[in-house]
Design brief:
Blueprint lengths: L2 E7 L22 E6 L12 E9 L16 E9 L2 E8 L3 H9 L33 E5 L2 E5 L7 E3 L6 E4 L17 E2 L6 E6 L5 E7 L5 E8 L10 E2 L3 E6 L2 E3 L1 H4 L6 E3 L5 E7 L8 E5 L4 E10 L2 E9 L22 H4 L1 E9 L5 E5 L5 E5 L11 E6 L12 E3 L14 E5 L26
Antiparallel strand pairs: 1-2, 2-5, 3-4, 3-27, 4-5, 6-7, 7-8, 8-9, 10-11, 11-12, 12-13, 14-15, 15-18, 16-17, 18-19, 20-21, 21-22, 22-23, 24-25, 25-26
Length: 449
């Protein structure tokens, strides 16, 4: 029988009859923390499936000062544990400095992404823009045996025990954490080396930094990367020997930025650029390659093939739509959430380090985003990419779900991206990517055999 206990409850001042499109229905936020054991299982789970699935979500607790955007919600980590054929569940808020301050105040204190920073009631804050709350609600990875939650526009990294979700404080990296700029949305953990790769960005030169944290949780590399001006990178990629950064032509409008207004615009006359730098390379070692103008919110993977660096991610056919579409919310601020209107599709970029030549191509015409892979193949040739789609039913791979290279295996399982810390599964002979099964580090930083 399912046993459910309430661990705690956060103060929420949201109205009971809230009709905001991103705070109602399936988006209705959760303010209660639960522990649930012995969940009902339909069918059977393998006895040797032993580990946890982690997912980060936005859960706002107070009305916005002016206008709410779903990126503003406070982080809540959900954990589903598998062991001996049984399943348990637990959820916990990430105790960020911003959440605790707003709990004490009983209201929102900082402006969100769709609000002018000047409406903040406090002069401090986080984010490349400043005067924002670091909600730590964008991503969660497992590095050095600890779950790490991050914020989409540069902030602190918050640590939790991946098995209990106990609060472990913020990353300090031995006093070397770049607190002046923070760390941006999507850090990358290489399962083969245990390294965490990251970047941050800001509104003053050099506008971008790149760094590496080793398996012992020490900052061992941190270099400035010069850009033409302030940019809005959200994700990065890596291969066995290189990190791939980006300079996309969707960024804060310079004239408005000079007046303290933060409005992003797409510049179709400026090419997209991918920067390839050795993983421990100096600032001057980066090489830039130009491609068709677009914006990429998420990369799926990158790998080396001879002299070529191959990067794959979601190309936006319409990076700056005029609206969220006929069936989307009317508020113009939500137009950047409509992946169907933005025409996001899986794409491949190729860079030849010997000749300097570039090539690019679509891998699918299906509208997909938020891809994830078996992390054991991060930075290496791989076979499967699992991505979210707007489809409401299971259909063949050409239309939804388990995207793959056109010349490779097929499947059809739509899933939402998260992080798996799995133990007890063995990698198939020869290290072949068989899809959803994966080997990762356990809670003590060890690899299972």
């Amino acid at each position: 029988m399912v046993d459910v206990e309430v661990y705690g409850k956060m103060l929420s001042t949201l109205p009971e009859d809230d009709d905001h499109p991103y705070r109602s229905g399936p988006w209705r936020p959760q303010s209660i923390e639960y522990d649930a054991t012995d969940l009902d299982v339909t069918g059977e789970l393998p006895d040797d499936l032993y580990g946890v699935y982690l997912r980060n979500t936005e859960n706002p607790l107070h009305p916005a000062i002016v206008r709410y955007h779903p990126f503003d919600g406070d982080a809540m980590i959900h954990k589903v544990s598998f062991r001996d054929g049984k399943v348990s569940y637990r959820n916990r808020f990430v105790r960020t400095d911003g959440l605790l301050a707003e709990q004490e105040a009983g209201r929102s204190l900082w402006a969100g992404i769709a609000e002018n920073p000047n409406v903040s009631t406090r002069p401090d804050g986080w984010g490349a823009r400043g005067r924002m709350k670091d909600a730590a609600s964008t991503d969660v990875v497992v590095h050095a045996g600890v779950a790490v939650a991050s914020f989409w526009q540069c902030g602190d990294l918050y640590r939790l025990d991946p098995l209990t979700l106990d609060d472990l404080g913020k990353c300090s990296w031995g006093g070397s954490f770049p607190s002046d700029l923070g760390v941006s949305a999507h850090t990358k953990v290489d399962d083969h080396t245990g390294e965490l790769l990251f970047f941050n960005y800001g509104t003053t030169a050099p506008y971008l930094h790149y760094g590496v944290v080793d398996a012992g949780n020490r900052l061992v590399h941190y270099v400035p990367i010069e850009l033409p001006g302030p940019r809005l990178p959200h994700d990065m990629a890596y291969t066995e020997h290189y990190a791939i950064l980006n300079d996309m032509p969707l960024f804060w409008e310079p004239e408005l930025l000079a007046r303290g207004r933060y409005a992003s615009r797409f510049h179709p006359d400026i090419p997209s650029r991918l920067g390839v730098i050795p993983r421990r390379g100096a600032s001057g070692d980066i090489r830039w390659f130009e491609f068709d103008p677009t914006y990429v919110l998420h990369w799926t993977n990158a790998y080396e093939s001879g002299d070529e660096i191959i990067v794959e991610g979601f190309f936006q056919g319409c990076p700056e739509p005029s609206s969220a579409g006929p069936s989307g919310p009317k508020d113009k601020a939500f137009r950047f959430l409509a992946q169907d209107i933005m025409q996001t599709r899986l794409h491949r970029w190729r860079m030849n380090l010997a000749t300097g030549q570039t090539r690019e191509e679509d891998l699918s015409q299906t509208c997909t985003e938020f891809g994830t892979i078996n992390s054991g193949f991060g930075g290496r040739p791989y076979r499967y990419n699992y991505a979210a789609t707007n489809e409401t039913r299971l259909v063949p791979v050409q239309r939804a779900g388990q995207a793959r290279h056109p010349d490779r295996a097929r499947g059809a399982i739509p899933v939402r991206a998260g992080r798996v810390l799995q133990r007890g599964r063995r990698r198939p002979a020869g290290g072949r990517d068989t899809g959803g099964r994966r080997i990762s580090r356990d809670a003590h930083g060890r690899h299972e055999p």
